[in-house]
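Action item from last week, closing it out:
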Amino acid sequence: MKLSARNALRGTVTEVKMGAVAAQIRVDVGGGNVITSTITVDAADDLGLAEGKEVVIIIKASEVIVAVED
Protein backbone atom coordinates (compact mmCIF):
# COMPACT_ATOMS: atom_id res chain seq x y z
CA MET A 1 0.00 0.00 0.00
CA LYS A 2 1.32 3.46 -0.90
CA LEU A 3 -0.02 6.62 0.70
CA SER A 4 0.59 10.32 0.22
CA ALA A 5 0.62 10.85 4.00
CA ARG A 6 4.15 10.94 5.41
CA ASN A 7 3.28 10.77 9.10
CA ALA A 8 2.96 7.06 9.84
CA LEU A 9 3.64 5.69 13.32
CA ARG A 10 3.67 2.02 14.29
CA GLY A 11 2.12 1.16 17.62
CA THR A 12 0.03 -1.16 19.75
CA VAL A 13 -3.64 -0.72 20.60
CA THR A 14 -3.95 -0.24 24.37
CA GLU A 15 -7.67 0.48 24.63
CA VAL A 16 -10.84 0.28 22.53
CA LYS A 17 -14.00 2.01 23.79
CA MET A 18 -16.98 1.12 21.60
CA GLY A 19 -19.95 3.47 21.55
CA ALA A 20 -23.19 3.26 19.60
CA VAL A 21 -21.69 4.86 16.47
CA ALA A 22 -18.08 5.83 17.27
CA ALA A 23 -15.16 3.97 18.80
CA GLN A 24 -12.29 5.62 20.67
CA ILE A 25 -8.97 3.90 19.99
CA ARG A 26 -5.81 4.51 22.04
CA VAL A 27 -2.48 3.46 20.52
CA ASP A 28 0.89 3.41 22.28
CA VAL A 29 3.48 4.58 19.72
CA GLY A 30 6.44 4.32 22.11
CA GLY A 31 8.47 6.79 24.11
CA GLY A 32 5.56 7.38 26.47
CA ASN A 33 3.39 8.69 23.62
CA VAL A 34 -0.21 7.62 23.11
CA ILE A 35 -2.36 8.63 20.12
CA THR A 36 -6.14 8.68 20.55
CA SER A 37 -8.39 8.44 17.51
CA THR A 38 -12.15 8.37 17.08
CA ILE A 39 -13.38 6.20 14.21
CA THR A 40 -16.67 4.55 13.35
CA VAL A 41 -17.64 1.31 15.09
CA ASP A 42 -17.93 -0.31 11.64
CA ALA A 43 -14.31 0.65 10.84
CA ALA A 44 -13.07 -0.68 14.19
CA ASP A 45 -14.90 -3.96 13.59
CA ASP A 46 -13.64 -4.25 9.99
CA LEU A 47 -10.05 -3.72 11.19
CA GLY A 48 -10.47 -6.20 14.05
CA LEU A 49 -9.15 -3.66 16.53
CA ALA A 50 -8.55 -5.01 20.01
CA GLU A 51 -6.08 -4.46 22.84
CA GLY A 52 -2.64 -5.75 21.86
CA LYS A 53 -3.16 -5.50 18.08
CA GLU A 54 -0.26 -3.97 16.14
CA VAL A 55 -1.38 -1.07 13.92
CA VAL A 56 -0.05 1.86 11.91
CA ILE A 57 -1.37 5.31 12.76
CA ILE A 58 -1.45 7.55 9.69
CA ILE A 59 -1.84 11.27 10.30
CA LYS A 60 -3.00 13.53 7.50
CA ALA A 61 -4.03 16.97 8.71
CA SER A 62 -4.48 20.37 7.17
CA GLU A 63 -3.57 22.11 10.44
CA VAL A 64 -1.24 21.47 13.32
CA ILE A 65 -1.52 23.65 16.41
CA VAL A 66 1.52 24.12 18.63
CA ALA A 67 1.26 25.52 22.17
CA VAL A 68 3.69 26.36 24.94
CA GLU A 69 3.21 27.07 28.61
CA ASP A 70 3.25 30.75 29.66
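Closing note: The chain has one domain: 7-59.
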